């Protein structure tokens, strides 16, 4: 599993460049949905970015809010999908 | 003189009137029994693309234009945050059969339903204003007619060679025990509150006739449907428990939800003024299995209605009438034992259509983000086709979006079993 800190660094770069986020750096457990950082369309953007970066395809049943609550949750989802045969 | 075979249709909603029109045009004798004096009020104003296609085929384009009904080009669906919206255009078949962007209508039902009924009458259908009360049956249990009760208390009986229940949520043949028992539908705990408003913020022309749907938490949503140049039908639908917990009356409840259901909804309602009473309705989600026989069938809401979110009701009514007309024509020429399979084929086709409608709605609520992804990014043309009404065609099951929705709902069911 990619370490949460590593993933969070990637995620911080992504939100800064793609969404123009300029607030305090996010932590693995930052509640990104609650903070209003990502709306539904931006979640879709993130999915596309993750699929390219990780070379995987995120199945539709994983496209649920719970998987996008925090950077750590996103990382856990990616790890879980990668582990599948 | 031998009487032509006679089809008796109970209910002059969109299902009953368009069936009567189609049968009358085939030269089949039809009688409609309708208890209300038309024009009468009815909910259900937004039509699908295929509904528009069927109305044009039936010859209503000019009348619909004369009635100045708003032209609908699509529906925008707004999620809990502003930018999470998706847009589904109205589709219609292009010259080569592929789907192109088209238009349909938003209708004021009193005028729309009257237009359809008059057309059936002009085509030769007889209309009797009375309530159908009981079903007459022969020794084999097959329906042979109905008893009627007029407003002044008089009663009468009417023979029928074929009986059609198009009585809407009244479910006449189910209550009479001819069709199966009424079962709760998947959305039977929902309640709707609605009214007409002026000064609702619409999209700029030519998109000023579009439907807007707003949602927040699961099963909490609102509609905005323009019904004239100035009037808009606005409604909210929530679980009944939410309403009861509020302790509010319908007026206050509607007003409060205008303010807090969804930001985009509130923005569009900011200057709106209510110009009608607040109406409410519940117990509309239901289902009847076993809704055909050699000498009867149920059509439209009379056998099933799931949920209004994607505006399939009137479209389904017209589609089922189009499928029923040739089936009835065939059945009339056959012995009961040979007519039964014709009716079973109709029932299974119609059940498939209604099941697909429900899969679409269930997926939307179980997987709103995945649905957004499908509708907006992955399979927008599939979703447009399904919304436009291709939902009764069994080949719709082959659309990748439909397959993905079956996959998602299968996944949800497996997950639920695992956690149980
Ligand atoms: C909240 C809500 C919102 C909706 N919004 C939409 C929408 O935007 N778009 C859409 O397409 N659909 C919508 N619908 C669904 C739509 O209202 C119905 O699907 C549609 O009206 C069904 O048509 P029908 O012909 O089957 O029945 P109806 O239109 O209900 O017609 C039935 C007729 O039968 C008559 N009748 C009943 N019993 C008897 C009897 N015993 N004897 C004689 N006559 C009788 C009634 O008077 C009535 O005229 C909505 C429904 C709800 C609940």
Write a structural description.
The complex is a heterodimer of chains A (85) and B (420). With 85 residues, chain A is an all-alpha fold. Chain A has one domain (4-14, 27-83): ACP-like (Non-ribosomal Peptide Synthetase Peptidyl Carrier Protein, Chain A). In chain A, 52% of the residues lie in helices and 0% in strands. Chain A has helices spanning 4-19, 40-54, 71-83. The mean pLDDT of chain A is 91. The N and C termini of chain B lie far apart (67 Å). Chain B is built from 13 helices and 24 strands. With 420 residues, chain B is an alpha+beta fold. The mean pLDDT of chain B is 94. In chain B, strands 4, 5, 15, 16, 17, 18, 19 and 20 form an eight-stranded mixed β-sheet that branches. In chain B, strands 9-2-1-13-23-22 form a six-stranded mixed β-sheet, covered by helices on one side. In chain B, helix 10 (336-366) packs across helix 11 (368-378). Chain B has two domains: 6-60 and 108-185 and 285-354, FAD/NAD(P)-binding domain; 190-282, 2-Layer Sandwich (D-Amino Acid Oxidase, Chain A, domain 2), CATH 3.30.9. Chains A and B meet through helix 2 of A and helix 11 and helix 13 of B.
The CATH topology of the largest domain in chain B is given as: FAD/NAD(P)-binding domain
Beta-strand percent range of chain B: 25-35%
Mean pLDDT across all amino acids of chain B: 94
What's the helical proportion of residues of chain A?
40-55%
- Give the helix tally of chain A: 3
Which two chains touch over the largest interface? A-B, 13 and 21 residues
- Write the CATH architecture name of the largest domain in chain B: 3-Layer(bba) Sandwich
Low-confidence stretches of chain B: none
- Based on DSSP secondary structure assignment, what is the total number of beta strands of chain B? 24
Q: Give the domain tally of chain A.
A: 1
Q: What's the CATH class of chain A, please? A: Mainly Alpha
Query: How would you characterize the largest beta sheet of chain B?
Result: 8 strands, mixed
Rg of chain B: 21 Å
What is the number of E strands of chain A?
Answer: 0
Q: Given the helix and strand composition of chain B, which structural class is it? A: alpha+beta
